[in-house]
Amino acid sequence: MKFFIDTANLDEIREANDMGILDGVTTNPSLMAKEGITGADRILKHYVDICNIVDGDVSAEVIATDYAGMIKEGENLASLHPNIVVKIPMIKDGIKAIRYFTDKGIKTNCTLVFSAGQAILAAKAGATYLSPFVGRLDDVSTNGIDLIAQIRLIYDNYMFDTQILAASVRHTMHIIQCAEVGADVMTGPLSSIKGLLNHPLTDIGLQKFLADYAKGNK
Ligand code: E4P
Fold first, then answer.
1. Tens-place pLDDT, residues 168-180
2. 91-142 residue pLDDT tens
3. Residue 28: CB within 6 Å of ligand 1?
4. Is 208 tagged catalytic?
5. Ligand 1 atom, smallest distance to 87 CA
6. Half-sphere exposure of residue 8, counting CA atoms within 13 Å on the CB side?
7. Which terminus of the chain is more solvent-facing, meaning fewer CB atoms within 10 Å of its CB: N or C?
8. What is the spatial distance between Cα 13 and Cα 190, in angstroms, rounded to a whole number?
9. Is the pTM of this model over 0.90?
């Protein structure tokens, strides 16, 4: 399973990348705003800064919601760097735009996916990535991981190439469950990735090894 980090914070992206386990980055307009990145020029530069840190796919989301607007914006985003993936919302014009970019060989990430039906449409349009939002489904008392498993079954039935990018991952258990049900990619915050490191027996064991070494090497 590929690990993407879901942030526009350059320090966090560097930290995850320095661990040697980072395969890409996802952003969205809310994450850009959280970092205080506003205005078209600054936003475009920020995407390039991210691409210069990570050797992997970087999702950049369009703001337009009409077909012509999404094409114009997506082409501009794709021209910034070869690793840019144009992130497009799951709406009718979005599906049409995904088909356009697929036919042009430009990678896409279909975002704001909450159902298996939406997943089928995005795959039919040739989306590179599909982003079902696990955490936001959990937020409304619906099991987000179950949706990942359902889409996995459907995509395997028909050998769709679209990669399932489990999004809105919030914590370590989401990551483990995504791996169990066969998500191709997960994107989550740095805290969820670093949380995988933790086990008290590791800490206790390491302390004991170091103490025993110190005793024998005074
Ligand atoms: C996915 O690409 C989204 O940007 C993101 O994962 C949403 O996460 P949230 O539901 O924690 O905001």
1. 999 999 999 999 9
2. 999 999 999 999 999 999 999 999 999 999 999 999 999 999 999 999 999 9
3. yes
4. no
5. 2
6. 22
7. C
8. 8
9. yes
